[in-house]
Write a structure and sequence with these properties.
By secondary structure, the protein is mostly helical.
Length: 205
Amino acid sequence: MLRKIARNRPLAAWVAYEFSLGPFSAFFLTLLFPNYLETLIGDPKLTDKYWGLTNSITLAVVAITTLIIGGLLDRKGFRRGFFRYAGITWLVFAALALTTHRPLFALILFGIALLHYQWVNVPYNAYLNDLSVKEDRGRVSAAGWAAGYRGSLILLLAALPLLRGSGDAARGMWLALWIVPISGLLFFLPAAFLLPRVPAKPAVG
């Protein structure tokens, strides 16, 4: 299966893009960014409150907009364009969230990154049906999931020297978090250029 994927450049780029998505979930949503944010706020309870509020608001917007976006992308033929827009936007705002020491600004920038991170999955997931045949779809999806898992593990191992060697916990987390937008860009660019344009689909009825 891996050889078959490697021979299909758009499909290989699709699978490899999971290497970009997985680390954001591991570093920003789970392991490091909440703890880094706590060093900015200085109060664990207040951090939990603001962190939960930011995630709740963002995911509510995602829930309201996802089906609308998916329908529009199919009808208008904007899938590749929206993939490029959302893909570069979450990377940029994830990086911007690391450029301020003001907790409120960091949370707003993170919220925008999270929103577009969720949005990019709409066209990304839709591409699976266009890039693979029905009998291979499950294995291709599993290959993408495995790429995301491996990406998270590899980058976590790469982050260990930064976390242990900086002598300052906050600075170590800050440095490690930069791995996500930098590595994410490397795996976003092939997908942005190799994933095909999908023609608009006529409305039914």
